[in-house]
Amino acid sequence: MKSLFALVLLATSSFVAAGPCDIYASGGTPCVAAHSTTRALFNNFSGALYQVRRGSDNATTNISPLSAGGVANAATQDAFCASTTCLITTIFDQTGRGNHLNQAPPGGFSGPEPNGFDNLASATGAPVTLGGHKAYGVFISPGTGYRNNAAKGTAVGDQAQGMYAVFDGTHFNGGCCFDYGNAETSSRDTGNGHMEAIYFGSSTTWGTGSGSGPWIMADLENGLFSGVNVHLNTGDQTINDRFVTAVVKGEPGHWAIRGGNAVSGSLATFWDGSRPSVSGYNPMSKEGAIILGIGGDNSIGAQGTFYEGVMTSGYPSDDTENSVQANIVAAGYATASLTSGPALTVGSSISFRATTACCTTRFIAHTGSAVNTQVVDSSSSTALKQQASWTVRTGLGNSACFSFESRDTPGSFIRHANFALVVNANDGSKLFSEDATFCPQAGLNGQGNTIKSWSFPTRAFRHFNNNLFVASNGGVHDFDSPTLYNDDVSFVISAGFA
């Protein structure tokens, strides 16, 4: 009995020491691309995982694991990004092939950045822990995307490949298309079967699964497939665990979808069978580019969070994937706080005072639906005092953050719409809930709080010409100006006006 226990311990120890790509290589299907901002995916990898760029001076730095095969060194990022904003500019390929992911260029659809490029993700939008060590994922808001149109060694034509990714199973929408995987090299739709990527979300335009979603599906271009054709596959289950392992793999005439909880248990098989019968999908015409957060034609309407993922050469066995799943579970993903700075109390009445030198007597208030700043003091009218007071509520779209209900218009909340802040009645929709959820951080100028949008974490409450926006530190809108950004997004939160 003692000998058996020792063997189990030894097997477990060596098993955990091997990274996902070591496991794939042992199974005869080596990784040809490996991306993660949270950890090394090879047991001996100690190079750069990703690069961040800070808003204060546009300097960049690379973030590597704490040790070979280990978790990302989040402390390096936190020190580098202190008192400013940071974006993820590059997610490095760990295979040595140079299949790095960078800011996606325009294609069939244009992104919101200059020259049609997509947005970059906030470096701090998706904090987690792995085995108790802090790390950051990649929080994709609509308009954000990464791509490599010149990847080396990825599957083309009808060649076999495997893919897995770890996602946030609670961050999704029905937009097209939150993908990770193989896509067109032109950033344009070049026809059926020219993609094979993992999709995660609740789109019902093409295929669907059981329940209300989200589902793991395959984006094969001109269709999200839950099974053999673009309609309901009841075997493709809704999967909304906080951390999800998603698997799609394909070979000539055959493909599969698998998935499971990334912190416990095993993988389930949601589809394992023949290629779609519609013209173009058998044989496939994969082109070998790599995408993250967007569709093959740069469709940019989706949202989701990515932590790690790989692409392989060859069709991995279920046993290999089961071993990879056990490795992911052993990594110990867990949630981390989304807030910092002076704490808020749910149910309390608060006010937000500007800290920019010009405007320290001005508070966030509203006039009808428009959110603005106004001078408020003890002599102000009762109506204005009420318009400048807000009740703290648990975040409508994420309970780890907050929503702010109007004191004078109960049932109405601050939300962003086209990046302007407005006060609207809660319509109960998923979009409203997410738009009305904000995560306070320690104030960027050292005072009070900076109130970040949960759904667009590159953006925060900013007063600009006395109106309120969710603004980024540099961008295409006038209210995104970097001038005075840290001051304009820092507010002292005090008790609401009596």
The strand count comes to 35
Average pLDDT, all residues: 96
Unreliable runs: 1-16
Helix content: 10-25%
Total DSSP helices: 7
The Cα radius of gyration reads 23 Å
Structural category is mainly beta
- As a percent range, the share of strand residues is 35-45%
Measured between the Cα atoms of the first and last residue, the distance is 71 Å
- Largest β sheet strand count, sense and barrel closure: 11 strands, antiparallel
What is the 3D shape?
Answer: elongated
Record the SSE blueprint.
Blueprint (H helix, E strand, L loop, with lengths): L1 H16 L2 H7 L4 E6 L13 E5 L5 E4 L10 H7 L5 E6 L9 E3 L17 E2 L4 E4 L2 E4 L1 E3 L5 E3 L12 E8 L10 E5 L12 E6 L6 E2 L5 E5 L4 E2 L6 E2 L9 E9 L2 E8 L6 E7 L14 E4 L11 E10 L4 H14 L1 E3 L13 E6 L7 E6 L2 E6 L6 H6 L2 E5 L7 E5 L5 E6 L2 E6 L4 H6 L2 E5 L6 E5 L6 E5 L2 E5 L13 H4 L2 E5 L3
Parallel strand pairs: 14-17
Antiparallel strand pairs: 1-22, 2-3, 2-4, 4-5, 4-6, 5-10, 7-8, 7-23, 9-22, 10-21, 11-18, 11-22, 12-13, 12-21, 13-15, 15-16, 18-19, 19-20, 24-27, 24-35, 25-26, 27-28, 29-30, 31-32, 33-34
Helix pairs in contact: 2-4
